[in-house]
Amino acid sequence: MTRIGLISDTHGFLDESVFKYFKDCNEIWHAGDFGGITISEQLAIQSKLPVKGVYGNIDGQDIRTLFPEQLIFFCEKVKVMIRHIGGSPPNYNPATKKELSIHQPQLFISGHSHILKIMYDDRLHCLHINPGAAGKNGWHKVKTIIRFTIDGADIKNCEVIELGKK
Length: 166
What we know:
The strands form three sheets. The protein has a five-stranded mixed β-sheet with strand order 3-2-1-11-12. Strands 4-5-8-10-9 form a five-stranded mixed β-sheet, covered by helices on one side. Strands 6-7 form a two-stranded antiparallel ribbon. The protein has helices at about 20, 35-45, 60-65, 95-105, and strands at about 1-5, 25-30, 50-55, 70-75, 80-85, 85-90, 90, 105-110, 115-120, 125-130, 140-150, 155-165. The protein is built from four helices and twelve strands. The protein is globular and about 40 Å long. The chain is of the alpha/beta class. β4 and β5 form a beta hairpin.
């Protein structure tokens, strides 16, 4: 069983309360727009957890040298695909639609929109998660993160956590 802390769109700001919510996690996944290398370092050092992620459209070369545009991997028996800009069911952007068709993940994670969304795509047999935005920049009103568990082939115990107003 792997417990995941999911965060996105920090834009250079990391709310210290994320560490309280991620303390029982095994990994942290960041869906892009870190906003600087200090965010990824702070996540890894303070949590003492591995950090997986992708770069976002605002990220500079410091992040782009450490994190790819797209990440595809297995967590237990679940194939995961993470891209910062992806859209959501059924309105994926063209590049994401193509990648989803090629890789056929069971879990697709994106950021970018600052819109918290968890929905199953029946057509692709894939769960889509966007954790919203955890930073202070953007049009969202509340900072959000997500915590969930992957147990074999099951994705479960999904919790939406509000970190307060931005």
